[in-house]
User: Which sequence fits this backbone?
């Protein structure tokens, strides 16, 4: 292993000296830390080695004239269902959808079957992803009563994105709602802990409402604002007690945003494209249970508050919460129908359309999908286009007008709530560590995905 690395290093040193790159991206408008820059990107050995291709030759050249080149989009919340639920999704199709949608790295969630609760569960996912993932990946460890005391160790394992806690039951059996269990989880570990904040006791109490009506329009009535706010306040309190950093996933209410605005020093905030794009009751009338998601898509004034929170800087990252279920499953009568929709492939097209509509700037989008996750989670070498960083690039055409269709979906579930929607702004090519893996809606080459490295996970001595 060590010998191979030394040989690879020698080869790279030789090619650096000869100025022969793996890939040059030329002629694009590049979003760098200095702003929009018309420059080239020279990639060698998986890294960016220069931002000026003068004097370089390359095995592959990607012409980006008329395109914007963004740092690779990182989707920090996806459910890829492997192992155990592969009739909905698997690591190959999930990551295929990712790169077709311009995503270069994903954090995958632990509510698979088995749940991800041990080092062996994590290793099994890493083994399954090896050679099959099209983008880079990391896996969350579930936090529960059975592994609370081991979490400080588990969260530092290579390939682990950190600990994820479900305070309210959503899909799968992962649940930690008991005060004592939550306290044990929060106290065992130091990395930023991700949480699905809905109050389980209140959800149970109110489920009869949904059962009585059988109407998906009541989804945000059953899982109401108080369910979300109570859980968010509770976990922020427990994290404060322990001095633990927290990441509140898919925040969906104006009330939570107002509360979280006062806790920004240690608490980070995710919003999803569906909460920013769909609104009740219209989405339920048009899409039925396809719009059913936890926490629910709510009324317009909540969506407006999420957009305000993006503008005010309260929101740190966007995650798709890609949570596929088959159409058959979704067609069961509400509330038996499972919550969840696809999202990894549509995250960027939907958000570019919002950029086109003037709802956020392209710079803010890059902050939410690249710089934001890199900053919060301490990603080694990712999140910006700069010399020395991983050559993860998302090339987009801000003017391309395209239609999102079910046919375009790589997901096993094969549907999107945005079927038939026209958007302006489209991913044209995706580069993962210097490999062009998708271009013009087609996959290229082999799945080259590798585990993401985190600064807070066990350090790999060869990576300095
Ligand atoms: O609607 C949801 N479905 N929300 C979640 O947080 C989990 C997810 C799933 O795994 O299906």
Assistant:
């Amino acid at each position: 292993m060590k010998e191979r690395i030394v040989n690879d290093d020698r080869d790279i040193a030789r090619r650096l000296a000869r100025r022969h790159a793996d890939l040059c991206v030329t002629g694009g408008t590049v979003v760098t830390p200095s702003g929009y820059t018309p420059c080239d990107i020279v990639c060698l050995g998986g890294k960016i080695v220069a931002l000026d291709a003068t004097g370089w030759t390359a095995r592959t050249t990607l012409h980006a004239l008329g395109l914007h080149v963004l740092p690779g989009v990182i989707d920090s919340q996806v459910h890829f269902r492997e192992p155990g639920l592969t009739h909905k999704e698997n690591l190959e199709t999930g990551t295929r959808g990712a790169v077709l949608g311009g995503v270069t790295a994903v954090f995958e969630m632990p509510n698979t079957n088995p749940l991800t609760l041990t080092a062996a569960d994590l290793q099994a996912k890493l083994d399954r992803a090896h050679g099959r993932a099209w983008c880079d990946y990391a896996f969350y460890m579930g936090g529960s009563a059975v592994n609370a005391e081991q979490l400080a160790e588990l969260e530092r394992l290579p390939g682990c994105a950190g600990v994820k806690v479900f305070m309210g039951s959503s899909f799968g059996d992962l649940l930690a709602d008991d005060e004592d269990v939550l306290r044990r989880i929060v106290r065992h570990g130091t990395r930023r802990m991700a949480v699905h904040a809905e109050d389980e006791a209140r959800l149970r109490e109110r489920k009869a409402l949904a059962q009585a009506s059988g109407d998906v329009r009541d989804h945000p009535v059953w899982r109401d604002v108080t369910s979300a706010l109570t859980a968010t306040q509770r976990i922020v309190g427990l994290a404060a007690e322990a001095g633990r950093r927290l990441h509140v996933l898919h925040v969906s209410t104006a009330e939570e945003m107002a509360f979280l605005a006062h806790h920004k020093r240690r608490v980070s905030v995710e919003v999803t494209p569906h909460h920013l794009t769909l609104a009740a009751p219209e989405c339920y009338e048009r899409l039925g249970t396809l719009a059913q998601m936890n926490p629910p898509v709510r009324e317009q004034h909540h969506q407006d508050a999420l957009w305000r929170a993006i503008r005010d800087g309260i929101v740190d990252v966007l995650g798709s919460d890609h949570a596929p279920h088959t159409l058959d499953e979704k067609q069961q009568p509400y509330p038996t129908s499972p919550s969840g929709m696809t999202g990894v492939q549509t995250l960027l097209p939907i958000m570019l359309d919002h950029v086109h509509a003037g709802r956020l700037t392209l710079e803010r989008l890059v902050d939410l999908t690249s710089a934001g996750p890199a900053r919060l989670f301490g990603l080694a070498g990712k999140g910006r286009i700069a010399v020395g960083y991983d050559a993860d690039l998302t090339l987009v055409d801000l003017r391309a007008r395209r239609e999102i269709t079910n046919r375009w979906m790589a997901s096993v579930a094969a549907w999107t709530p945005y079927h038939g929607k026209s958007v302006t702004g489209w991913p044209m090519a995706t580069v993962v560590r210097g490999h062009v893996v998708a271009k013009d809606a087609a996959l290229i080459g082999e799945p080259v995905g590798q585990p993401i490295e985190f600064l807070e996970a066990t350090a790999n001595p060869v990576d300095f």
Remarks:
- DSSP finds 15 helices and 19 strands in the chain.
- The longest strand covers residues 393-404.
- The mean pLDDT is 96.
- The chain has two domains: 1-69+388-398+421-443, 70-377.
